[in-house]
Amino acid sequence: MFPRAFVPVFFLTSLVAQAEAASPALNWDSAQSGAFIVSMTRDARGSLWAGTEDNGVSWFQNGVWTHFGSQDGLGDDSVYALAGDRLGRMWAGHLKHGVSVWNGRSWKNYGPLEGPLGQRIFAITTSPIDGDVWIAHNAGLSRYSLKNDSWTHITRASGFLSVEPNAISFDSKGNLYVGTACQGLFIAAATANYTAWKQVEGAPSWPRAAGGQGLPSSLINDVLVDADDVLWMATTAGLARSADGGQTFEYLRGQDWKAKLAGLRNPPTPEDDTDFEGDPLRQDWVQKLALDGNGNLWIGYRSGAYELRRRVDWMGRWQAPRDETPFPFVSALTPFDNGYAAVATYGSGLLLIHHRELFGLLDAWLGSLAEDTFREIVPLLRRAFTDFSLPERRQLLELAGRDATAPVASAEEVEFDWERGALVLPGLYQLLEVAS
User: Fold this and answer.
1) pLDDT band at 158 (very low <50, low <70, confident <90, very high)
2) Residue 36 gets which letter from DSSP?
3) How does 226-257 read in b/e, with b if 16+ C-beta sit within 10 Å?
4) DSSP-assigned beta bridge partners for residue 170
5) Would the pTM count as exceeding 0.85?
6) What is the C-alpha separation between 117 and 160, in angstroms, rounded?
7) Cα-to-chain-centroid distance, residue 10
8) Is residue 408 one of the residues assigned to a domain?
9) Domain that holds residue 390
10) Residue 66 included in any domain
11) Cβ(177)–Cβ(240) under 8 Å?
12) Could you tell me which of 355, 354, 349 has the C-alpha nearest to residue 327?
């Protein structure tokens, strides 16, 4: 691999540098704010909130962290769930004391007599239909109506047969998906006012394959519904996906799936995944999921690794693999708008991860060149891009990314140096991942 110091990284370097310049310096102090972060979200104004185990919650605005603890009105200092509502309030779910709500000035705690039935809160989200706040806890689910200022509780008596709801998410129609610790997925329709529940159980044992059909595990760590109403589930046996509202599922395992099965009575054989085509996940135990503004799926793992995948090609890794990171498992992911994300860890505090995969793609391409070719092409790349006018650069990018059958501007429309362009296009094809 040639050192990047010799590379005129043309417009890619500029894009990454701009993203880093725009990213906030989070300056998280683990000693003061806590190293064990267990929840994270952004409020309506885009400010970041982070909940910790035993150290309260912190709010990041205007470059400064404000810390809140039980002395400020929180029910207790362990905040395992965070969500903002339509009124701009922040809801914090506790280990032993229900929920606390921040109204912009102060906190107020709500226990089982005036809030959710359960004291241990696992997840909080809001409905896209009416803005109601839904809370998953150790007694089932609770719904707070913004319109009526009232509570409704859903328990085993209501047909919801789990007391271990790990994660909750809505689709655009208001249908509710609840992932549980041991009992798979529960689904309720908005049209039935959440009175009828469908349970989808995972495989009774880990699948003996790198991918396939069905829900691979009943232990669901996270649930996410994207803008196309596709359901994504983080499980202990890979990533699961359903494009039909939970009727059918497909899954992809991590690259360590065989190692996990090696100690069983019937370990996997090479024939177990012969017919499966797909690039495995970095790890089999998927902990957290998030979507960025471009619709890319961020995946956080139990052992601290993470990666990005395109939703449309989720079985093929599109970002350069990262080196293994030294922090514990990812407890929350919050992407921002310029290709970076806040990563909450259990033990190493809060990290700001920059979108450096562009450098990885560039390095991979340059590293594939012979030394003589490298020395010849680098000056040509630099000369080509610096000499192109803005319209020429635009057309060059269109050529690299266009469909083979799509019309392009003629040479008469834009004065274009095709000889120099031909020198640059091969690299762009690889960097943009399009066919030449």
Assistant:
1) confident
2) B
3) beeebbbbbbbbbbbbbeebbeebbbbbbebb
4) 176
5) no
6) 14
7) 29
8) yes
9) 369-432
10) no
11) no
12) 349
